[in-house]
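note to self — DONT lose this again. spent like an hour looking for the file last time. sequence + predicted structure for the chain T wanted, 123 res
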Amino acid sequence: MAGQAAAGAAPIRPAACPRCGPELNPFRPGPVTGHAAEMDPGFRGEVADLYHRYRHGYPAAVLDAITGAFGLGPGDIVVDLGCGTGQLAVPMASRVRAVLGVDPEPDMLARARPMPGAGGLAD
């Protein structure tokens, strides 16, 4: 059962906000209240910059595995949902006819466009 530890182990404690204590548990159902409601968990602004700078792309072996598993080739169109800064969409574009990258954060999409190899990306 969730929240129980094996015999002799320390009890499992749910994550809690350091300011609010256990009453702000991300695993508790219901709306987020208090200062947590003011926090922006989105990938915009500085967060998008940091993600783009430090998130490593996928190695060629991953792209090979994806194209092989789905039988993708030069005539196919790929949709990358939650594409972020284009870590998968941009290198995949050289292997298929087109890639449509979709992301709810405009700041993430803005960082995908100037990536090397993103010459064919458009709004």
